């Protein structure tokens, strides 16, 4: 069977195909890309160990323990697509054939894995989860309840070693000179440059990434995003500061979590399957804007996790300068929460008049 790197969304698999089939290019019979690197399972087996190892985390439904929730079993193809986003938009029948031909021996010995439904037993094995899950009890909601209402500062529910390890896979560097934006609702005359940075320590109010009193600079990727994030009303004047990065920095990019490949070196497939959900949850929680009726208590879970990320050190130096996360108020934009506001300088302030707002709504009752 012949396919190419464009049959896959997974970057690791695509780069392996690009490397091992460097000299064999042409039109792909599966995705019809005109100039793919063609991988031929008749003569090549470089992908086999990667897929065999990934498929090894799955157990056919007939062999799962009785306690495994039946509703959580599904076909291998659905799980590979849903959990890992490995394949590009190619037909299911082709995915099935690719798996069968890459993992021919495995197909002969355990055909149920490919033809029936499957599950990952460790996902519901509380003893295994204690040591391997980012949240030891495998329950984000229970963590939220504990940290908001029972034990604010010394939760035992998080495996910090695992969180630290994942952070190292989603680090991102910004070079000095990069520009970001921060908005404040103001008078028409606007704020001076000196009043555009984060409030000083002791004076700051709380946010997703900082408790009250702890300083943190929130900046956005572009002007439109920062106008959305500040939730300016119609006819408001908004001062938008342009912030220039003074030195190279490294941040934890929560937006990249959904893109970490299961095939990346250094992560166990099984642990990755268990923990991906929490990291995605963390990005979602960071991105949520608070409704007026919400309590600032809702900030506590992310504040707690961000404080830990802030405490990670390497050679007595802080390892990360901030967190990057999606903007929900302006999809496509993103935000940075920067631990030390002095890493940026505000170089200009412009005042905007909000002329029109566009509301999108959904009937809920
Ligand atoms: Zn292809």
End-to-end span in angstroms?
53 Å
Write down the overall mean pLDDT: 93
Numbering strands along the chain, what is their spatial order in the largest sheet? 7-11-14-15-9
- List the ions, cofactors and other small molecules found in this model: zinc ion
| Major β-sheet annotation | 5 strands, mixed
**H/E element sequence:** EHEEHEEHHHHEHHHEEEHEEHHEEEEE
SSE class: alpha+beta
The number of E-state strands comes to 16
Counted up, domains total 2
- Globally, the shape reads globular
Strand content: 15-25%
How many helices does DSSP assign?
12
Low-confidence stretches: none
Portion of residues within helices: 25-40%
The rounded Rg comes to 24 Å
Describe the structure concisely for a colleague.
This protein has 365 residues and is an alpha+beta fold. 31% of the residues lie in helices and 19% in strands. The strands form five sheets. A five-stranded mixed beta sheet has the order 7-11-14-15-9.
Describe this structure in words.
With 365 residues, the protein is an alpha+beta fold. The protein folds into 2 domains: 118 residues, no CATH class; 186 residues, no CATH class. It is 31% helix and 19% strand. It contains 12 helices and 16 strands. The strands form 5 sheets. The protein has a 5-stranded mixed sheet. Strands 1-3-2 form a 3-stranded antiparallel sheet, covered by helices on one side. A 3-stranded antiparallel sheet has the order 4-6-5. β12 and β13 form a beta hairpin. The chain is globular, with a radius of gyration of 24 Å. Bound molecules: zinc ion. The site of zinc ion (ZN) has 9 residues, from β1.
């Amino acid at each position: 069977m012949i396919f190419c790197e464009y049959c896959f969304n997974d970057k690791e698999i695509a780069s392996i195909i690009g490397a091992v089939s460097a000299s064999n290019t042409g039109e792909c019979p599966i995705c019809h890309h005109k100039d793919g690197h063609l991988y031929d399972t008749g003569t090549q087996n470089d992908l086999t160990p990667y897929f065999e190892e990934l498929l090894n985390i799955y157990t056919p439904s007939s062999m799962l323990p009785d306690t495994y929730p039946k509703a959580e079993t599904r076909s291998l193809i659905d799980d590979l697509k849903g959990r890992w986003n490995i394949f590009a938009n190619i037909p299911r029948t082709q995915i099935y054939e690719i798996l069968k031909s890459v993992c021919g021996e495995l197909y002969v010995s355990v055909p149920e894995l490919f033809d029936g439904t499957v599950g990952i037993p460790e996902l519901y094995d509380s003893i295994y989860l204690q040591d391997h899950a980012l949240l030891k009890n495998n329950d984000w909601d229970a963590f939220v309840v504990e940290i908001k209402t029972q034990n604010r500062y010394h939760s035992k529910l998080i495996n910090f070693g695992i969180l630290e390890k994942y952070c190292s896979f989603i680090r991102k560097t910004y070079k000095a000179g990069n520009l970001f934006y921060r908005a404040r609702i103001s008078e028409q005359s606007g704020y001076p440059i000196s009043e555009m940075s984060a409030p000083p320590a002791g004076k700051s109010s709380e946010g997703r990434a900082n408790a009250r009193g702890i300083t943190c600079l929130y900046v956005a990727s572009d002007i439109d995003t920062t106008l959305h994030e500040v939730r300016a009303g119609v006819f408001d004047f908004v001062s938008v500061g342009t912030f220039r990065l003074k030195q190279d920095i490294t941040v934890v990019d929560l937006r990249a979590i959904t893109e970490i490949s299961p095939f990346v070196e250094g992560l166990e497939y099984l642990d990755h399957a268990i923990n991906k959900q929490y990291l995605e949850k963390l990005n979602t929680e960071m991105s949520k804007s608070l409704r007026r009726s919400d309590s600032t208590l809702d900030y506590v879970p992310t504040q707690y996790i961000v404080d830990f990320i802030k405490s990670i050190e390497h050679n007595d130096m802080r390892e990360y300068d901030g967190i990057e996360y999606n903007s929900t108020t302006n999809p496509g934009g993103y935000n940075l929460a920067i631990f030390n506001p002095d890493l940026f300088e505000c170089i200009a302030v412009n005042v905007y008049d909000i002329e029109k707002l566009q509301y999108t709504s959904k009937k809920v009752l």
